[in-house]
Amino acid sequence: SNARLNPSPMPTDLPRGEQPVLRIIPMPADTNAHGTIFGGWVMAQVDLAGSVPAYERAQGNVVTVAVNSFSFKEPVFVGDLVTVFMIDGDRGNHKNISGRIIGTYLP
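The structure assignment produced for this chain is given below.
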């Protein structure tokens, strides 16, 4: 069944002081056999969003070398507004870009 486990809407307030890199609404073609959005689709959106600060830093072409972790806390449904935030961070010689997603249920 593709019914929401929690019928209450997801939060609509965006984090203070942060700007989204990508906002997108998944379509029916993006669903799996359970009626939720493919995890791979979500990961692809994060990868696209991550390319924005990476491209700005590199001032040229970039590629994803590794993804260290990815946690799915709630399912995403057709019609949800998916907002991806990216954080461009430096740790010594390591350059990393972190992201997080906020989903908003659009009734």
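Interim note for the steering committee: DSSP finds one helix and three strands in the chain. The chain has a mean pLDDT of 77.
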